[in-house]
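Hey, can you fold this one?
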Amino acid sequence: MLQRFLLATAVVLIAGVALPSIGTAAGTDPATFINNLGNQLRAVTSYPSPERKLARFRDLFREDFDVPGLGRFVLGRFWPIFTPSEQQEFLGLFENLVLLTYSKRLLEYADGSNGPRVTGSRLDQDGAVVFSEISRGPNQTVQPR
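Sure. Predicted structure:
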């Protein structure tokens, strides 16, 4: 139960930070963005090797999310304390942490007909909120809040 909560929280946090800039910059509806990302995750599950899956997941993460912005958000007020080279080192380590922590689990959720399914969305002053369900199999649905 705790793992599902942490996974849902991570997805919501990452999507929440990324969606406002992506939705307005690309002119994409936030619900469409999440649906497309789910479809891309499902495609990655068909890759034969774990290394190729991780590499493609890394590509998706870099393409669809503001990794430097997420890293600065995570460090908060401590970001300016670090030198530019330390900041770059942190961003590389942060990216690896996120990828290694969440890629396997997200790919499990996206396997086959499972994966994120958008159930609704709304725009607000800070960006967008997308409601979704993640199905892991028969009668096992996780609803991020």
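Residues 2-142 form one domain. Let me know if you want another pass with a different chain boundary.
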